[in-house]
Every structure is written in C-alpha cells, then in structure tokens.
Amino acid sequence: MEKKIMLGNEAFARGAYEAGVKVISSYPGTPSTEVTESAANYEEIHVEWAPNEKVGTEVAVGASIGGARALSCMKHVGLNVAADPFYTAAYTGVTGGLVILVADDNGCHSSQNEQDSRYHGRAAGVPILEPANAQECKDFMKYAFDMSEQYDTPVLLRSNTRVSHSRGIVTVEEREEREVKPYEKNIQKYVAMPAMAKKLHIAQEKRLNQIQEDSRDFSINRMEINDKKIGIITSGICYQYVKEALPKASVLKMGLINPLPKALIQEFAGQVEEVYVIEEGNPFFEEQIRAMGISAKGKDLFTIQGEYSANMIRKAFTGEEPKHVPAQEAPGRPPLMCAGCPHRGLFHVLSKLKKTVLGDIGCYTLGSLPPMSAMDACLCMGASITMAHGFEKARGKAAAKDTVAVLGDSTFFHSGITGLINMNYNQSVGTVIVLDNRITGMTGHQDNPSTGKNAKGQEAPAIDIAQLVKACGAKHVVEVDPFDLDAVEKAVKEETAREALSVIITKRPCALIVKQPDVPYVITEDCKNCKKCLSIGCPAIEVADGRPIIAPESCVGCGLCEDVCPFDAIEMEVK
C-alpha cells in the first residue's frame, strides 16, 4: 500500500476502481465532476458522459441488473433529474452493487440553490453514507458497494463542495476484480408495474429496517467520548469543524446518515449531559433525533444557510471571535465571461436589440450581469426553451417577436431537445438560440455528444445540431459566427420577426480550448473616450485615468472590441 495526496473526488474515483466497478455513467456538475474525470484514467472501467443525469442513472441501473458494479455521479440538482429512475431502483434493488454519488453545494458556490440531497435519499428509502475527508471518500465508496450488494439496495453516497474539493492523504490499495454476476430473468424483481411494486415496497421497507438495526455495529459510525458535558452528533465536513473548534467535546460521528443509527444515538445521548446536533443545511438529523425523544439543540444556534466553519462553531459555544481577522477584505471580483468568450458577441447584440432573454444553466448565464444585463430569467437545465414557450402562450405571438430562448450545446442535449419538440408540437412561435462552443464549458471542459470525443478522449460520433433541430420540427435554422456581429444581428432580427419556430446556432469554440492569437489589440489616439468598448464586458478592457485601455496580458485578440468601436480606434498591436 502507498499513500498519495488526493482531491476528495479523486479519492472517490480511486474507491470505485478498488471496489471493482465496471461501469460509470455521469453528467458533469460541480462539485462532482472530477470523480468521473478521474475514473476515466482507469482502463478497467467503462466511463462515459451521459447526456443527462437521468440517462446516467439508468445506464448504471442497467449495468447493475447485468451483474456488474456500477456508479453514476452528479451534483445535487442533477439528482432531481435522476429522481425518476432513482426512486424506482430503490424498490427493485440490485444485482451488481449500485451507488449514486451526489455532491451538494452548501453556499451556492456554483449552483442555483442549496438543496439538501439527504431528503431525496430518505424519501426514496435508500441508505446514505457521508464521508468527512479524502481517505473516507475512498473507503466509503468501497463500503457503499459492499452494503449495496449485502442489502440488495442502491446506496446514495453524499459529498459536498468542501469534501469533494479538499485534498488529503489517502492510502491506496489494489483493485479487487469482481466477476460479472450471471443474469437471471426476474420479472417480479425488475418489472416495476403496480402488482410487483406493492411487494417491492414491502421488501424495501424491510431491508431499510434491517440496515437501521444493524447500524449499531457499522464501522463507519463511531463514538468519541471525552468531556461528557457536551455531546455533539454530526457527520461529514461538520465533523472536521467540530474537532477543530471543540477538541474536548464528546462526538458521535455518523457515516451512515440514513437510516439514522438509532440505537447508537440513544446510547450516546445517555452518556452526555447535553446533546447538540451540528449539520449544514436543514435540520435533517435534528428533527429525527428529537422524534426519538431526545432533547437536542441545533438550528436554534446555527443557520440553515451556507457553509459552517470551525470559527462559527467555536463562537456559538464559547463566544470567542476568530483570532485572525483580516484588516480589510479583498476587493470584489465579479464573475465575467472570459476574454475571447464566443458568447459575448451574442449577448451584446441581444442587449442592443433589447430582447427578452429566457436563459439557462451554463457560462452564458453570466450574460445576465452588467454591463450587458442581457438575460431575464434562469431556472434550471433546459428550462429556457420551455419557459419561452410558456411566455409566448401567456403573452401572445406579438410578445414572441421580442423574446428568445438561449442555451448551450451541452444543455441542449441534456434537456433542451424535449422542449424544442414541445414548441413544435404545440405550435409555438419563438426563436431558440443554441450557443455551440464545442464543449461543456462551465464544469471544466468535458466533452458532449457534439464534440466528437467521449469521456476517455477517444473519437466518437458527433451529432449535427442543425440537423437535429430540423428533425425536432424547426423549419428555419441559421448558423452564425457569434463574433460576426452584423450576421448575428441580422439573424436575430429576421428569425424573431417570423411567425414560426426558428433556431439560431452560434458556432465558435470556447476561447479556452483553442489557441488564441499572440498579438493583442490596443486603443489608439483616435479614441474619443465614448466607452462603447466597455459595453461588451470584456475583462481585458480596463479603465485608467478615466479612459479605456486594453491589458495586453489579458487580451486574446478576438477582435470584438474593434467591431463595436464607432471610431475605428482599436486595432491589432503592431510589433
């Protein structure tokens, strides 16, 4: 055995490798993405990017029915998309071990909400495990697969931003190869129709009760009895905060967080004078522990919002303020599209034309921010198209002429296709703009069905988006370069003027995946200081002494600023 420093997500992947996992199908979503990316480095595992989390979960379920250990990874909002197969798989159980890894995002670092995925696991009736550090990420992954097969159930393995994106020392071991179990036809187990589902529900409840009964002796739960005045029940990253803030307190660290290890909790509560529950998010533990008849404090001391810290916990118990308070906060750094981002040209045009823009999840969501402020709504993956359809049905065809739906290529494959079909089927008037930057950008440049490569970087069939949208019923399809502002403006004006369903596809690779020109642009003496160049929100354009300048170290030479300058005062630097 050797020790390595690993990201939590890398350790999850290592655990899957050591557990003998054969199939991983996921959709990228921060903070879970690196699990699948890291797993793709192991030749023994089939690793793929699915179009969305529902597909990924269904692939994993199919692999499990086929007798192999399988994993699907996603972020918390991705579990919403996967909920349909996830909840029913909790009834049918497994053949090969089946684990669903979900990473929550307390604090909304890269998400539209702070959803608490523990409720999904409890509602589905599956066991949930939650590690606290990188070593446990690896170990709990292996434990989850063993539990899945022992109890005939999918297992939800829960992480969060801090656990997934923190590094720690991990002891790595060899892979334990698992023979694919023989397939046996079993209609009563795997055909989830009403007559079978009623029986499966009874079996599901029975195994969950058995897990709770056995949990008293699970190695992933442990009591640390110290000062008995304070007893803290916690799990995951909060355990690390507790140990730093209150090293003398007695702690019950739960690795199994659904069903709660009731007997162990009751035993622990009987040994301490006062029980506190420390958990980020909602009072998931606290409410259940109080329902056991145990007096416990928790959310009366702590918020349900954001992330916790050792300082927060220390202050709640001792009143002690942090010892090291910075003299002043670092200046704010608003999120912006990268220099050379192909989305910038489109949003500049949409802002100029004052279109109502119903947006989606991706880098282009930043088009909602100043100076362009060119997006009116963003809900969830794929919702731009369906919201635009509802907007048109509510306000009429005239409103559709000033409204567009905007989403990226990966998001279109994720959940935009069905919305486009719905627009066509229900005779909607409107314009959909697909921003094809040849990559899944926001989560770190993963491939998708249009890029021509798979999760392992191998050549793969590439879907032609223009042909696909035509097959979905769009008769008017235009492809443009988003940096050709005249062409973009012409396309937007013409397509929104139609009383029909139309699609504009902006095609230019992400600025971070193609080599950019070495020669930056400069602002010449012809500048009239109109500051029109600032309207595109490029981070390479700054203001010094009241006048715009281009920072050469940031400029990638895309030339968009040259196009918007009304006085021809911007040109490529002559060397």
Description:
With 575 residues, this protein is an alpha/beta fold. It is built from 20 helices and 23 strands. The chain has a 7-stranded mixed beta sheet with strand order 3-2-4-5-7-6-12, sandwiched between helices. It has a 5-stranded mixed beta sheet with strand order 9-11-10-13-14, sandwiched between helices. Helix 19 links the parallel strand 18 and strand 19. Helix 10 crosses helix 13 and helix 14 packs across helix 19. The longest helix is centred in the middle third of the chain and has 21 residues.
Average pLDDT:
95
For the secondary structure, the number of strands is: 23
Query: Span from first to last CA?
Result: 56 Å
Largest sheet: 7 strands, mixed
Structural class: alpha/beta
Determine the strand fraction and express it as a percent band. Answer: 15-25%
What's the gyration radius in Å? Answer: 27 Å
Low-pLDDT stretches: none
Helix content: 25-40%
Tertiary shape:
globular
**Secondary structure tally, helices:** 20
Instruction: Give the strand order of the largest sheet, numbering strands 1, 2, ... along the chain.
Output: 3-2-4-5-7-6-12
Q: Which oligomeric form is depicted?
A: single chain
